[in-house]
Amino acid sequence: MFANPLKIAALAVLLSPISALAQDGSLYEPAPDPSMSYVRVIDPGTENVAVGSKRLDDVADGISPYVGVVAGDVPVITDAVDMTLTVEAATYYTVLVSDDGATQIITDAITNSPAKADLAFYNLSDLGSADLFVPRADAMAVEGVVPTNAASVALNAPLELDFEVREGKAVMATVETVSLKRKSGVSIVVTGSAGSYEAISIDNSYIY
Question: Which residues does UniProt assign to the signal peptide (predicted)?
């Protein structure tokens, strides 16, 4: 599910940076193999994740880095999940794991744009339709994300923003001072149930 293009255009205009070059570095890491794919896990109930041959321990907040893999069948293991994911070339995947162990495979829209930052919003709560609102722009970044699902958008960068997780007009959780950088990405995850919710943000990271 993706945000309304007209709203994204309005958001981009409102948030267009004025002095980007002064805040953003001009050098980037060498580009990886363009055919490589990436798989990560978001499972707030686990600290241990294995993707392919990589085992990751003490995973903060249950959000693993993206692990570089070749196309084919890739084993994915957490404390609650033991599965095999069929991976296509040059594709980004997130394995979402809910509290009850249910999984959803998300194909992430990663652009790696030299002028924008990728923002992904994951709903691991019981909110029936979660929106990600930007108070500074008085606009939605993404909206209508159902449980165990996600939406993505690319925003002008660099800049720092606060976000509100909303259901309708009600603010259910907030994330403050999220730094958006060019050619990189940030993920926001909302969890909780029965009126108690928490949202966290994490910079996307990679293991090759």
Answer: 1-22
The pTM (predicted TM-score) of the whole model is 0.86
> Is 113 strand, coil or helix?
coil
pLDDT band at 27 (very low <50, low <70, confident <90, very high): very low
Residue for token digits 């960068």? 157
Question: What is the per-residue pLDDT across 146-190, written as a single tens digit (0 to 9) for each?
Answer: 999 999 999 999 999 999 999 999 999 999 999 999 999 999 999
What token pair was written down for 167?
A: 């259901």
Radius of gyration of the chain (CA): 17
What's the rounded Cα separation, in Å, for the pair 118 and 154?
4
Residue with tokens 């652009």: 111
The Cβ of residue 111 has, within 10 Å, a number of other Cβ atoms equal to 14
Instruction: Please list, in sequence order, all residues whose beta carbon lies within 8 angstroms of the beta carbon of residue 207, skipping any fewer than 6 positions away.
Output: 54, 56, 65, 66, 67, 68
Beta strand pairing status for 116-125 and 184-193? parallel
Which among 184, 171, 208, 201 has a CA at the least distance from the CA of 42?
A: 201
